[in-house]
Amino acid sequence: MIKSVLMEKVAEKVKNFTKKDVEVIADAIFDNMKGSLAKGEKIEIRGFGSFKVKKHKARKGRNPKTGESIDINAKKNPFFKVGKELKERINSSR
Amino acid sequence: MTKSDIVENIFEKVGFSKKDVAEVVELIFDTIKDSLEKGDNVKISGFGNFVVRQKRARRGRNPQTGKELTITARKVLTFKSSHILKDAVNAK
Fold first, then answer.
1. pTM for this structure?
2. Which chain B residues have a beta carbon less than 8 Å from that of A78?
3. ipTM of the complex as predicted
4. A41-51 pLDDT, tens per residue?
5. Are B61 and B68 contacting, i.e. CB atoms less than 8 angstroms apart?
6. On the CB side of B49, how many CA atoms lie within 13 Å of its CA?
7. Closest residue to A1, CB basis, from B35, B89, B90
């Protein structure tokens, strides 16, 4: 399901909102979440899961093809941990 | 940051009441969950993809007791962040 389909589905469920309104809110949500993660904050959505930023130290790597040693810079990666409720819901469906 | 913080942060910007925004935020996450529960992946452009993966049963070991056991087949949810999100997180 892509975002526009998600927007349609949500708009069908709310009375006073158009698809456009829902879209504005959804964009604000994900933008806000992105900004929060960029600051290194943790986000917790009850019943869904949590997002945090994992830090990786700089390390030496190797080009597997040539065997050449290269430096891999330190980096940060967004990480999502599934909430217990959602984990169980996904696993119980067949 | 929690769901209520998100509502607090955005309701003025989007120009709807806090109550209305809270309702829509709730519905957005509910609808995403419903889709994932059905095994349907969810793609949010500019943020990332939520992907349901089918895992096969495999042999595992209880790391505490060392006893061998079978890990049953299951579905797991993974999140693959978009490059836009990765870049935002790595920007100084």
1. 0.89
2. 48, 79, 81, 85-86, 89
3. 0.88
4. 999 999 999 99
5. yes
6. 10
7. B35
